[in-house]
Write a structure and sequence with these properties.
The protein is of the alpha+beta class and about 525 residues long. Among the domains are: about 60 residues, no CATH class; about 210 residues, 3-Layer(aba) Sandwich (Rossmann fold). Helices cover about 35% and strands about 25% of the residues. It has 14 helices and 23 strands. The protein has a six-stranded mixed beta sheet with strand order 5-23-20-19-6-18. The protein has a five-stranded antiparallel beta sheet with strand order 8-11-16-13-14, with no helix packed on it. The longest helix has 23 residues.
Length: about 525
Amino acid sequence: MPWEIQWLISLSKSIVRVCNKYFYHNYFSLSLFLPKKLKLFTPFKSFLFLLSCLLCLLFISLLFQDNKLNITGHFYLNFFNVQNLWNRNNQTKHDSVKSMMKSADMAEQKFSAQSNIKQDSILIADTLKIQKVLQFIQFDENFMSLIEYPDNDKNKFVYLLSKLKSAHKQSTHILYYGDSQIEEDRFSAVLRQGLQSIYGGSGCGLLSMMPVAPWIYPKISYSDNWYKWDCYADVPKKDEYYGITAQTFLINFNDKPSSWSLKCNADMSSSVCLFNKIVMYYGYAKEPIKIKYLNGSEIISEHTLNNPDFFDKKIFAVKNNESIQFEFEGFESPYFYGISLESFDNGVYVDNIALRGSSGTFFHLINRELLKKFFEDLNVSLIILQFGGNIMPMIDSEEKARQYANYIDYQLKIIKSIHSQLPILFIGPADMSVNIDGVMQTHPYLETMIHYLKKTVLNNGYAFFDMYKAMGGKNSMPVWVEENLAAKDYLHFSPAGARKMASLIYYSILQDLKELKTIY
């Protein structure tokens, strides 16, 4: 039985229960004044009543084809157009979307096959297992990379290729910035796992010390006297100083010690917990801060942070990566910028920098000298920016879409002024649906905003991945929701959907690197 009929019957029964209770059994009810035949409501009578109401509404929607009935110059009644319901299936391009899903399925299968090779080549450093598969995967000859370049010049990724090829000598980081779509390492995990299986390395790289969305592993906990400044969601303040993750973490001592810990599971299939090196980034340690480093239940070492410079780091060797804790004592907190989980054997790291609520317009609020220091120390080979979704509710005109693209243009120029060779891959927003006349449809200005975003990115000499196009284009999100690849909010991918889309991004990057590898 269709769910609509089931819902109607259920509603009818509910009305019967309410009516019988308050209109028949109540001595003071209006049922005293009703004819005897009408005193008792039955499911059938309720059903007929509801059906008549729906038929009346149907008649009204057919009568007003323009959907509006003007009352005054500024007020009108808006009616649901029933024709949109009949055309609902025609508005979603099932065939084209399913075709794009097949490409995503293929990319995911290739990625899974590559990941399964990991057990064939294992190096052991202390208690750390590091996987290195130094060959490219077999590519599908029919697959076309979905990354767009200015003038179709893929040489923009030569810098990335050179850093990856030498990652076994010097570690390199890929900074993956994004909004809530990438939380819990959903996109970056695929890129990290794939690239580490080729170019070496293990560990998840840079971590927020106070993540908004906790990972499954590593699990982070901290004492209640930690707090943070951020410039991506909160209103920035003049007396605050932000780190590479657009955040800075501090301790409110007040004669009270502080702690920070993480727990991992080295038996995980992913390599995020396979690390033997911890790098703590900090600055402005104007007063000496004592640090006690515990690995498991064993106190390994004690250190003092006392460098007043704006950038410094402390490296800790790990014996048992399942339980790690730092204890801090002092009076005035330094600025902590983050912690990186890495391997002494070098390799590539994809840092998940998830900034919930951000639109990607925060680089101008970070000290440029600090950004430069981080780019050099992390040996950054690529920056990925995945933004645009959070700004869409405010885009109600072409002019506002153009303004947002101008804001992004300003951010890109800041990065270029700090490191002109560093490539950037901008991942545009996914399809997002809004309710239009009772039907979930693509946001009216989404395509306009993507057009200006793509134009801005390419004009700056950077690469663009059109996630909206990769999904299947206009009105593709409802199909992804039907396939359980996106959430019911018609905005976010499900974990399975995020993995498919991330596989497409990863496979496209590798396809282009393969072409460059034959040349360089």
